[in-house]
Amino acid sequence: MKKSHSVILCLGSNADQEANIQRAQQLLCTEYASIAFTPSIWTEPVGVVSPPYLNCLATMTIEDNLSRLHNKTKSIERLMHSSPEERKGNTVRIDIDILCFDRQHYHEDDWNRDYVKRLIEDFPTPLHLI
């Protein structure tokens, strides 16, 4: 029997935001049946000059290990044509970050962002336990 892992992802986009968040959610749903998303919220960019971001969180229980999850999220970003070159110009079609994997936190700066705190508090399941 495979081990299950609890995960929180953060999705963000500052280009064709609603369409890109929706597309990323669809692609993640095809990979992970247990995934659930917070509502998306608009946020101001932090540290860059760009259009507003649309952000949401996702939570799920998966059997993939951390490396496989990372590879899948980066594959979705590439599939959606999000590139390092665009990001250098402050265009982010989609960014999918692993915030938490089995209670291990990643992207520590993101945990301190107001929108992440707000989305965690508003999530219908107890994300604070993860």
Task: Explain this structure.
With 130 residues, this protein is α+β, with helices and mostly antiparallel strands. It contains 5 helices and 6 strands, in the order βαβββααββαα. The chain has helices at residues 17-31, 66-79, 84-88, 108-111, 114-122; strands spanning 5-13, 36-37, 41-43, 53-62, 95-101, 104-105. Strands 1, 2, 3, 4, 5 and 6 form a 6-stranded antiparallel beta sheet that branches. The two termini are 22 Å apart.
Concise structural overview:
With 130 residues, the chain is of the alpha+beta class. Helices cover 36% and strands 25% of the residues. The chain contains five helices and six strands; from the N terminus they run βαβββααββαα.
Task: For this entry, give a set of tags.
36% helix; 130 residues; 5 helices; single chain; 6 strands; alpha+beta
Sequence-ordered SSE layout with sheet pairings:
Blueprint lengths: L4 E9 L3 H15 L4 E2 L3 E3 L9 E10 L3 H14 L4 H5 L6 E7 L2 E2 L2 H4 L2 H9 L8
Antiparallel strand pairs: 1-4, 1-5, 2-4, 3-4, 5-6
Give the C-alpha Rg.
14 Å
Percentage of residues in strands: 25-35%
How far apart are the first and last residues' alpha carbons, in Å?
22 Å
The residue-averaged pLDDT reads: 91
Helix content: 25-40%
